[in-house]
Protein backbone atom coordinates (compact mmCIF):
# COMPACT_ATOMS: atom_id res chain seq x y z
CA UNK A 1 0.00 0.00 0.00
CA UNK A 2 1.13 3.53 -0.81
CA UNK A 3 2.76 5.30 2.13
CA UNK A 4 0.56 8.26 2.99
CA UNK A 5 1.03 11.67 4.57
CA UNK A 6 -1.94 12.98 6.57
CA UNK A 7 -2.48 16.74 6.41
CA UNK A 8 -5.21 18.68 8.21
CA UNK A 9 -6.18 22.07 6.75
CA UNK A 10 -3.53 22.01 4.02
CA UNK A 11 -2.06 24.82 1.96
CA UNK A 12 -4.50 26.58 -0.40
CA UNK A 13 -2.89 25.03 -3.49
CA UNK A 14 -4.01 21.58 -2.29
CA UNK A 15 -7.61 22.78 -2.05
CA UNK A 16 -7.36 24.34 -5.52
CA UNK A 17 -6.32 20.97 -6.93
CA UNK A 18 -9.23 19.24 -5.16
CA UNK A 19 -11.73 21.79 -6.52
CA UNK A 20 -10.50 21.27 -10.08
CA UNK A 21 -10.40 17.49 -9.76
CA UNK A 22 -13.94 17.10 -8.42
CA UNK A 23 -15.25 19.40 -11.13
CA UNK A 24 -13.47 17.41 -13.82
CA UNK A 25 -14.20 13.86 -12.64
CA UNK A 26 -17.49 14.24 -10.71
CA UNK A 27 -19.05 17.42 -12.08
CA UNK A 28 -19.24 18.97 -8.61
CA UNK A 29 -19.60 22.73 -8.36
CA UNK A 30 -16.97 23.71 -5.80
CA UNK A 31 -15.32 27.11 -5.57
CA UNK A 32 -11.64 27.85 -5.13
CA UNK A 33 -12.83 30.20 -2.36
CA UNK A 34 -14.99 27.72 -0.42
CA UNK A 35 -12.08 26.53 1.73
CA UNK A 36 -11.42 29.99 3.16
CA UNK A 37 -15.16 30.55 3.54
CA UNK A 38 -15.56 27.43 5.67
CA UNK A 39 -12.46 28.12 7.75
CA UNK A 40 -13.70 31.62 8.46
CA UNK A 41 -17.20 30.39 9.35
CA UNK A 42 -16.28 27.44 11.56
CA UNK A 43 -12.81 28.25 12.90
CA UNK A 44 -11.46 25.39 15.00
CA UNK A 45 -14.68 23.44 14.35
CA UNK A 46 -13.62 22.82 10.74
CA UNK A 47 -11.13 20.28 9.41
CA UNK A 48 -10.24 19.48 5.83
CA UNK A 49 -8.21 16.28 5.98
CA UNK A 50 -6.15 15.22 2.99
CA UNK A 51 -4.08 12.13 2.29
CA UNK A 52 -1.06 12.78 0.09
CA UNK A 53 1.73 10.55 -1.17
CA UNK A 54 5.27 11.27 -0.01
CA UNK A 55 5.82 13.23 -3.22
CA UNK A 56 2.67 15.35 -2.69
CA UNK A 57 0.28 13.56 -5.03
CA UNK A 58 -3.32 13.93 -3.90
CA UNK A 59 -5.02 10.70 -2.74
CA UNK A 60 -8.28 11.63 -0.99
CA UNK A 61 -10.06 14.27 1.08
CA UNK A 62 -12.82 14.71 3.63
CA UNK A 63 -14.12 17.82 5.39
CA UNK A 64 -16.01 18.06 8.66
CA UNK A 65 -17.56 21.06 10.43
CA UNK A 66 -19.77 21.63 13.46
CA UNK A 67 -22.66 24.08 13.69
CA UNK A 68 -23.85 25.07 17.17
CA UNK A 69 -27.44 24.38 18.14
CA UNK A 70 -29.84 27.31 18.14
CA UNK A 71 -31.20 25.85 21.38
CA UNK A 72 -28.73 25.74 24.32
CA UNK A 73 -30.21 22.36 25.24
CA UNK A 74 -30.08 21.00 21.70
CA UNK A 75 -27.50 18.92 19.84
CA UNK A 76 -24.90 20.51 17.57
CA UNK A 77 -24.82 19.36 13.96
CA UNK A 78 -21.57 17.99 12.61
CA UNK A 79 -21.63 17.99 8.82
CA UNK A 80 -19.47 15.83 6.58
CA UNK A 81 -18.57 16.66 3.00
CA UNK A 82 -15.95 16.72 0.25
CA UNK A 83 -15.46 12.95 0.51
CA UNK A 84 -13.43 12.31 -2.61
CA UNK A 85 -10.75 9.88 -3.73
CA UNK A 86 -8.68 10.46 -6.86
CA UNK A 87 -9.60 7.84 -9.49
CA UNK A 88 -6.08 6.42 -9.60
CA UNK A 89 -6.20 5.60 -5.86
CA UNK A 90 -9.69 4.10 -5.64
CA UNK A 91 -10.17 0.55 -4.43
CA UNK A 92 -7.43 0.77 -1.78
CA UNK A 93 -9.65 1.72 1.20
CA UNK A 94 -7.89 5.05 1.71
CA UNK A 95 -11.21 6.88 1.80
CA UNK A 96 -12.82 4.36 4.15
CA UNK A 97 -9.93 4.71 6.59
CA UNK A 98 -10.15 8.50 6.47
CA UNK A 99 -13.92 8.52 6.95
CA UNK A 100 -13.78 6.35 10.08
CA UNK A 101 -10.86 8.28 11.58
CA UNK A 102 -12.37 11.73 11.10
CA UNK A 103 -16.09 11.18 11.55
CA UNK A 104 -15.69 9.05 14.69
CA UNK A 105 -13.55 11.61 16.54
CA UNK A 106 -14.25 11.66 20.28
CA UNK A 107 -15.13 15.36 20.32
CA UNK A 108 -18.11 14.66 18.05
CA UNK A 109 -19.62 12.06 20.36
CA UNK A 110 -23.28 12.82 21.00
CA UNK A 111 -23.57 15.16 18.02
CA UNK A 112 -26.16 14.72 15.35
CA UNK A 113 -24.19 14.21 12.14
CA UNK A 114 -25.39 14.95 8.65
CA UNK A 115 -24.29 14.75 5.05
CA UNK A 116 -25.57 15.07 1.51
CA UNK A 117 -24.83 11.71 -0.09
CA UNK A 118 -24.65 10.97 -3.80
CA UNK A 119 -26.89 8.16 -5.01
CA UNK A 120 -24.10 5.60 -5.29
CA UNK A 121 -22.89 6.17 -1.72
CA UNK A 122 -26.11 6.74 0.25
CA UNK A 123 -26.66 3.12 1.28
CA UNK A 124 -22.99 2.73 2.27
CA UNK A 125 -23.14 5.82 4.50
CA UNK A 126 -26.21 4.35 6.18
CA UNK A 127 -24.89 0.82 6.66
CA UNK A 128 -21.26 1.56 7.51
CA UNK A 129 -21.43 4.85 9.35
CA UNK A 130 -24.92 5.16 10.82
CA UNK A 131 -26.27 7.87 8.51
CA UNK A 132 -29.52 5.92 8.35
CA UNK A 133 -32.11 8.63 8.99
CA UNK A 134 -33.23 10.29 5.75
CA UNK A 135 -35.32 13.32 4.97
CA UNK A 136 -38.62 12.72 3.20
CA UNK A 137 -37.18 14.14 -0.01
CA UNK A 138 -33.97 14.05 -2.03
CA UNK A 139 -32.00 16.95 -3.45
CA UNK A 140 -32.50 16.97 -7.21
CA UNK A 141 -29.51 18.45 -8.99
CA UNK A 142 -29.90 20.42 -12.22
CA UNK A 143 -26.84 21.09 -14.38
CA UNK A 144 -27.26 23.00 -17.62
CA UNK A 145 -24.96 24.69 -20.09
CA UNK A 146 -24.95 28.44 -19.61
CA UNK A 147 -26.25 28.83 -23.16
CA UNK A 148 -29.39 26.81 -22.29
CA UNK A 149 -31.08 29.63 -20.40
CA UNK A 150 -33.50 32.34 -21.45
CA UNK A 151 -33.36 35.07 -18.78
CA UNK A 152 -35.84 37.13 -20.81
CA UNK A 153 -38.49 34.60 -19.75
CA UNK A 154 -38.14 35.66 -16.12
CA UNK A 155 -40.45 38.24 -14.58
CA UNK A 156 -39.63 40.90 -11.98
CA UNK A 157 -42.56 41.31 -9.61
CA UNK A 158 -42.93 45.01 -8.73
CA UNK A 159 -43.83 44.77 -5.02
CA UNK A 160 -40.58 42.97 -4.19
CA UNK A 161 -37.59 45.08 -3.16
CA UNK A 162 -34.22 43.54 -4.02
CA UNK A 163 -30.87 44.74 -2.75
CA UNK A 164 -27.40 43.38 -2.18
CA UNK A 165 -27.26 41.14 0.87
CA UNK A 166 -24.26 43.11 2.11
CA UNK A 167 -26.42 46.26 2.05
CA UNK A 168 -29.17 44.58 4.08
CA UNK A 169 -29.46 44.63 7.88
CA UNK A 170 -27.51 41.50 8.82
CA UNK A 171 -29.70 40.77 11.83
CA UNK A 172 -32.70 40.60 9.51
CA UNK A 173 -30.83 38.14 7.30
CA UNK A 174 -29.98 36.02 10.34
CA UNK A 175 -33.59 36.04 11.51
CA UNK A 176 -34.77 34.99 8.05
CA UNK A 177 -32.15 32.25 7.76
CA UNK A 178 -33.23 30.91 11.14
CA UNK A 179 -36.71 30.25 9.74
CA UNK A 180 -35.02 27.98 7.18
CA UNK A 181 -32.27 26.45 9.33
CA UNK A 182 -34.56 25.56 12.24
CA UNK A 183 -32.65 24.03 15.14
CA UNK A 184 -29.16 25.03 13.97
CA UNK A 185 -27.39 28.38 14.42
CA UNK A 186 -25.82 29.41 11.11
CA UNK A 187 -24.96 33.05 11.87
CA UNK A 188 -21.23 32.67 11.21
CA UNK A 189 -21.77 30.46 8.17
CA UNK A 190 -24.23 32.96 6.69
CA UNK A 191 -21.89 35.89 7.36
CA UNK A 192 -18.98 34.13 5.69
CA UNK A 193 -21.11 32.77 2.85
CA UNK A 194 -22.44 36.10 1.61
CA UNK A 195 -18.92 37.58 1.66
CA UNK A 196 -17.05 34.83 -0.16
CA UNK A 197 -14.96 36.02 -3.09
CA UNK A 198 -16.35 35.66 -6.62
CA UNK A 199 -19.92 35.52 -5.42
CA UNK A 200 -22.93 37.81 -5.52
CA UNK A 201 -25.67 37.70 -2.89
CA UNK A 202 -29.10 39.33 -3.03
CA UNK A 203 -31.87 39.76 -0.47
CA UNK A 204 -35.56 40.20 -1.28
CA UNK A 205 -37.65 42.37 1.02
CA UNK A 206 -41.32 43.25 1.24
CA UNK A 207 -42.45 46.91 1.35
CA UNK A 208 -42.22 46.81 5.17
CA UNK A 209 -38.50 45.96 4.95
CA UNK A 210 -38.80 42.34 6.09
CA UNK A 211 -36.53 39.80 4.39
CA UNK A 212 -38.57 37.36 2.28
CA UNK A 213 -35.87 35.76 0.13
CA UNK A 214 -32.13 35.21 -0.32
CA UNK A 215 -29.99 34.24 -3.31
CA UNK A 216 -26.29 33.71 -3.82
CA UNK A 217 -24.48 32.92 -7.04
CA UNK A 218 -20.85 31.84 -6.72
CA UNK A 219 -18.34 31.12 -9.43
CA UNK A 220 -16.89 27.63 -9.14
CA UNK A 221 -14.12 25.61 -10.75
CA UNK A 222 -14.19 25.45 -14.56
CA UNK A 223 -16.27 28.63 -14.52
CA UNK A 224 -19.47 26.97 -13.39
CA UNK A 225 -22.01 29.14 -11.58
CA UNK A 226 -23.64 27.57 -8.55
CA UNK A 227 -26.94 29.09 -7.39
CA UNK A 228 -27.43 28.56 -3.68
CA UNK A 229 -28.91 29.41 -1.42
CA UNK A 230 -32.11 30.30 -3.18
CA UNK A 231 -34.68 30.76 -0.44
CA UNK A 232 -37.99 32.48 -1.13
CA UNK A 233 -41.36 32.75 0.56
CA UNK A 234 -43.08 32.34 -2.82
CA UNK A 235 -42.20 31.31 -6.39
CA UNK A 236 -42.63 34.95 -7.45
CA UNK A 237 -39.91 36.02 -5.03
CA UNK A 238 -37.57 33.30 -6.28
CA UNK A 239 -38.23 34.36 -9.86
CA UNK A 240 -37.59 38.02 -9.05
CA UNK A 241 -34.25 37.16 -7.44
CA UNK A 242 -33.18 35.16 -10.51
CA UNK A 243 -34.34 38.00 -12.77
CA UNK A 244 -32.30 40.49 -10.79
CA UNK A 245 -29.04 38.55 -10.94
CA UNK A 246 -29.31 37.46 -14.58
CA UNK A 247 -31.08 40.43 -16.19
CA UNK A 248 -30.15 43.48 -14.13
CA UNK A 249 -26.47 42.65 -13.57
CA UNK A 250 -23.68 41.75 -16.03
CA UNK A 251 -23.84 38.10 -14.92
CA UNK A 252 -25.50 36.67 -18.03
CA UNK A 253 -26.05 32.89 -18.10
CA UNK A 254 -24.16 32.38 -21.35
CA UNK A 255 -20.95 33.61 -19.71
CA UNK A 256 -20.75 30.40 -17.66
CA UNK A 257 -19.88 26.88 -18.77
CA UNK A 258 -22.59 25.42 -16.51
CA UNK A 259 -25.24 26.66 -14.12
CA UNK A 260 -25.85 24.33 -11.20
CA UNK A 261 -28.58 24.22 -8.56
CA UNK A 262 -29.96 21.54 -6.21
CA UNK A 263 -33.57 21.76 -5.00
CA UNK A 264 -35.82 19.56 -2.85
CA UNK A 265 -37.62 16.94 -4.94
CA UNK A 266 -40.91 17.92 -3.28
CA UNK A 267 -40.73 21.56 -4.40
CA UNK A 268 -42.67 21.30 -7.65
CA UNK A 269 -42.80 25.09 -7.95
CA UNK A 270 -39.04 25.02 -8.42
CA UNK A 271 -39.38 22.69 -11.42
CA UNK A 272 -41.91 25.06 -13.00
CA UNK A 273 -39.64 28.05 -12.40
CA UNK A 274 -36.48 26.36 -13.70
CA UNK A 275 -38.36 25.12 -16.76
CA UNK A 276 -39.50 28.69 -17.43
CA UNK A 277 -35.91 29.90 -17.07
CA UNK A 278 -34.68 27.20 -19.48
CA UNK A 279 -37.52 27.66 -21.97
CA UNK A 280 -38.26 23.93 -21.85
CA UNK A 281 -38.94 21.19 -19.31
CA UNK A 282 -36.16 21.09 -16.73
CA UNK A 283 -34.35 17.75 -16.54
CA UNK A 284 -32.51 16.76 -13.39
CA UNK A 285 -28.95 15.46 -13.68
CA UNK A 286 -29.13 13.30 -10.55
CA UNK A 287 -30.22 13.20 -6.93
CA UNK A 288 -28.52 13.39 -3.53
CA UNK A 289 -29.72 12.08 -0.18
CA UNK A 290 -30.05 14.15 3.00
CA UNK A 291 -28.84 11.76 5.72
CA UNK A 292 -28.43 12.04 9.50
CA UNK A 293 -27.29 9.84 12.39
CA UNK A 294 -29.60 10.89 15.26
CA UNK A 295 -32.39 13.11 13.99
CA UNK A 296 -33.65 14.34 10.63
CA UNK A 297 -33.57 18.13 10.57
CA UNK A 298 -36.82 19.38 9.11
CA UNK A 299 -36.61 21.67 6.08
CA UNK A 300 -39.40 23.98 4.82
CA UNK A 301 -39.03 22.62 1.30
CA UNK A 302 -41.74 24.87 -0.17
CA UNK A 303 -39.47 27.86 0.57
CA UNK A 304 -36.19 26.24 -0.46
CA UNK A 305 -35.45 26.53 -4.18
CA UNK A 306 -31.72 25.82 -3.83
CA UNK A 307 -29.46 24.43 -1.08
CA UNK A 308 -26.75 26.76 0.28
CA UNK A 309 -24.05 24.31 -0.77
CA UNK A 310 -24.06 20.54 -0.86
CA UNK A 311 -20.67 20.07 0.79
CA UNK A 312 -20.99 21.52 4.29
CA UNK A 313 -24.68 22.41 4.47
CA UNK A 314 -27.97 20.57 4.90
CA UNK A 315 -30.43 23.14 3.54
TrEMBL record:
Domain DUF1248: 31-180
Pfam family, one: DUF1248
InterPro entries, sorted: Acyl_CoA_acyltransferase (IPR016181), DUF1248 (IPR009658)
Superkingdom: Eukaryota
Protein name stated in the entry: (pine wood nematode) hypothetical protein
Organism: Bursaphelenchus xylophilus
